[in-house]
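Quick one - inputs below.
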Amino acid sequence: MEREDDGQLVERVRRGDVQAFGELVRRYQRRALAIAYRLLGHAHDAEDIVQDSFIAALDRLDDFDITRPFGPWFFRIVVNRSHNAHAARQVRTTEPLGDDVVAGGQSPSHGVEQAELQRRIGEALDELSERQRLVVQLHELDEFSTAEVAAMLDIAEPTVRWTLHAARKRLRAELATWKELHDA
Amino acid sequence: MHDERSSADAAGPLEPAEEALREVLRMRFGSPPGNTDWPALEARVVAAARFRIAARAPKTGWRTPATRWARVAVPAGLAAALLLGAGLVFGGGDGASDDAYEPGMNEVVATAAGAALPSDLLSVTDQQAFLYSVLNPEPEAR
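Output:
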């Protein structure tokens, strides 16, 4: 069966079709959760934000232009609601991560070395603003395109690309230094 | 910094970052937990939205014709009730039923009593003529 585009689904939701809304949720919940998680640093809070964001999108659905892509419009709602929740709860994304975080590639035998590398990387990333860090996370870890990141954060795409370029340059330098020390 | 921005723009689309770089970022920021129950989250979101979506649905089925008829029937019923009420209030409720027949009856009695026979004798019925003769006997000849 041919996959309906987002605009058709939105039209059906506007006419009161619950199944069409379910399909939109299926399509966007994973990426929405990734965004909310990046901003809140907590899985359960992120799930709450995903739910709130879908409800908010539903309430504003009549304002949505179906000739435009649904994703960036919806992700901006997720970002805004996550920011609001973040401000309300006074949670910083740079706080130590909770137990529910999956730390990729960590091995107990390299704990000390990785802690040192993490410290260096952390220092490098702390030089970025919160928004710049978010750009790096969303693009490098969650694989949003630069255009998507620009749309959801309401910034110019060249700014996103420049942020990524600068962050990579700094991180590569840290990595190189750490490898030299480690190999020596 | 300006040079860096220019070089990033001039480079065109960004090449994917090397895996080592992603690895350190993952180490620093972690990843969203992989044990999210997606069907459960979807069900939860849809359940929370169900009433809002239902409110958007156009009214269909029996309610549409019923609503259309109600637009006519309700004002018509109200108007009829008002007229009926007005009739009861201003139509004279006391003894109206007893008096209602009186004008017709008086006319019959008057006619029969000869107070006023119809001037057109050809239109006098047999019944009227009989009543007239009973009620107005001929004076006896002296």
